[in-house]
Each structure stands twice: as C-alpha cells, then as structure tokens.
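tool_log.txt
---
The assistant was asked to compare two proteins side by side. It first ran the structure predictor on the initial sequence, then on the second. Raw inputs and outputs are pasted verbatim so the downstream comparison step can read them without reformatting.
(1)
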Amino acid sequence: MPTLILVRHGRSTANTEGLLAGRTPGVALDEHGQRQASGLVRRLGELPLVAAVSSPLRRCQDTLAPLAEARPGLPLHTEERVNECDYGQWSGRKLAELNDEPLMTTVQRHPSSAAFPGGESMRAMQHRAVEAVRDWNARVEEEHGANAVYLMCSHGDVIKSIVADALGMHLDLFQRISVGPCSATAIAYTPLRPFLLRLGDTGELGSLAPPVPTDEESGRERGAQGNATVGGSA
C-alpha cells in the first residue's frame, strides 16, 4: 500500500496570536509560514509524489501553493474529511483563556470523551480523518501502485489522531504526539500494519522516495519488502 506524507500547514496568523483558529474562515499563513511553505518544495526534493490532498481551509491550501506551482502536473485534491476539528464555540478564542475552561482538562487528559460546545467530538474528528486516509490509500494504490507516495496537508490535531491510529494508540494518548507547523510525518501502509517512518520532521524528505525495483524484484509486494526491512537487526 502507499506511503502517506502528512504535512501540517505552515505557521498561521492564529498561531502567532495565540488563537484557536478552528474553522474560522480567512486564517492565512504569516510571513514565517509563507517561507515554510516555499521551503517545503525543496524539502520534498525528488520525492515522486503522485497526488496532493488538502484540507479545504486557506492555511492548508496556501501551504501547498508553492508546491503546486513548482509541480504543475501534480494532481491537487480538496478533502473535507481532513478539515480542522470543529471547535464550535471555542473557535477564534484565545488559548490562554480557554486554559481556564474545565473542558480543557478533559481535552488534554481524556480526549476520547471531549466534545466541543456547538462543534464535534474528538472521536468524530479521528474517525473521519482515518476513514479519509484509508479511502485515499486504496484510491492511490489502485491508480498508481503499491509503491506510490502521496501528500496530505492538514492540521495538528487531525494529524496526531491519524498517527495514533497508525501506532495502535488509544486516542486518549494522542496528546503525547507533537507535530509543529509545516512539519512532515510519513506513514508507510502495508497489508499487515502501518509503519511510522517520520514524525514531525522539519528536514529533507527526499530520502523517503521508494527504491527503483530491479527486474527480479518488480513483481514483489511492497508490504513484504517493508516487513523485511523493519524486522532486520539494524
């Protein structure tokens, strides 16, 4: 199955202002975030991406804009299911004041039971995001083969919940995962289990390119190759 590169959007104006942006419309990248987005093109290097999938929110779309310009043939898709968590009445509020809300303790310590007033639960967020990944994995493999690599640009909590699922972690542990703005997380999905290749990486990503198979290897399943590599003694 394919390898997924999860990219969190670059630093936004809400990040620098200490706001919980949620789905507030019009939240853009700040100047540093714009530089991060431009640098993503170099970081991805020669990684043979077959598709890019994005949250519908502007800060994700803007993060992928330089990549789309540099690779005009790269298909770019919008996926509602990897949208930011719907924080409801918390959206747009300062994080400093939200820390005094009793619900924040639940969000941090028992997120599987947390539901935002006028918004969605964290369980629902994880469910829709993981279903989106599974659907896109199947689509990408069908269209491009098991060695394909694709990118998905989303949001911190969404990416953390996808990583928790890949690691077999309960959602209540997902706050232990950290993914900074414009960081990349790579998950290789196989028929047996996923493998976390990178987490919150802000360096180069070209080394994640799949090896070019020899004629002898061309008929082998990537899943078998991945299991052999991970199970080695190195």
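(2)
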Amino acid sequence: MITHAVIFAPIGQASRSDQIVQRLSNAIVTGLLEPHEQLPNETDLARMMGVSHITIREALNTLRANALIHTVRGRNGGSFVCENVGNGSSNLHPFKSISTDYLADLGEMHSAIISHSARLASRRMTAADLNRLREFIEILKTADTRELRTQADMRCLLAIAASSQSARLANQELQLQAEWASLVAALYRSDEIHREVIALYLELAEALAAHSEEASVKAAGRIIETFTSYLIEKKMNYNSD
C-alpha cells in the first residue's frame, strides 16, 4: 500500500529514533495505522527505514511506553497498534507539537515541489500517465474513509511527481509525504473538503491534458495551498479547544 510506503520510507540523519517515534506516532494517532494492525518486524523496519536494529528497538520501546503499540510474544507475535489510542494520546497528536508558521513553511515547500512537477508533467506526461492520474482521482472520489482518501490523495500527488520524469522530484515528494500524510488525514474527516479537493484535482487533470504549463502550475499550487490553509485553520482551532 502506498500509505505504508510513505510511513516506512527511509529516515533522515538527525535524531533517527525520535524521527521514527514521531512518524509512527503521527500515523497511529491520526488513524493511518489502524488499531490491531501489525507493524513490520524489526529486521524489515530497519531495512525499510534505513536505520539500525538498535535504533528501531529504541523507537519501538518508546512507542510501547506511550501505549501506542503492544508486543505479543510467540510464533504469531509481533508489534501491534493498540486499541483506543485516541483516548489518551492528545499530547501526541501532530497538531500539538507544530506551529502555524511550520505548517505554512511545509506548505510552501510542498507547493514548490508539486507546482514544478506539474510544470514538467505538462510537457512530458504521456497518455498512460494521464490515465493513471485520472484513475487515482476517481479512486479518491469514491473513497469513504479518511485512510482511503489520504491514500488516494498521496497516489495522485506521487503520480504528478512521477509524471515530471524527474527521479529527484518524485523522491522528494515521497519523503515529504511521510510528514504530510498524517496531517492531511485529519482533514479528510470532512466530506466538504473531500469534494473541494476532488474538484481541484479534476481541474489539474484537464490542464495537464491540454499541455497548458501555466494552468497546470496554477492548479497544482491551488491544491497544496488549499490543504495548507485548512491545516493552519485546524491548528488554530486545535489550540483553542
């Protein structure tokens, strides 16, 4: 699943254990990793996230201490997401530890990546690429849970980045989504936002189909700007609750 490819993507260099804890905590608290879902084993996690077994073990110990996961021993054992984590995890919610300035900066960076990807895609996108994007938009349209909507949305964004035919842009988008996905998942509880985003993606698909560079860049920018605006609004409301 593309959601898990993002959640378990390689970690950067600084404070690796803390980054793993933050990423997995966000995914659990926002529902991208569901209750009772089993995490990959330590060996697979270390390989997928590009860190040592010791780092993974330290991060998992922290998640257990925060009652986000529990471990079952034995032949069918492993680490599983705890049930009802929302009841005692408000202090771990991603909106708790980030500022509106941080969200604005994150949105600007994401807009730069997707807007430039759309610029290149308007020139380089093949008919097969366009059909794939439209298929993902249709999946987003019919998705009825925040997890499925988030997953479909990430597929759309990754399809745009991939259609730029720039491996660097596609990789940057994948890495950024490790943080972006858990935030967006909180927005996709809203059917109204869901409908608005679908309309924006359809507008972008039409601009790309027409090979209009200017319209593609504007449409791509509006998608990220819309998300960023809603994220900042949600953060402000979260602080006032």
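---
observation on (2): Residues 213-240 form the longest helix (28 residues). The chain is about 70% helix and 5% strand.
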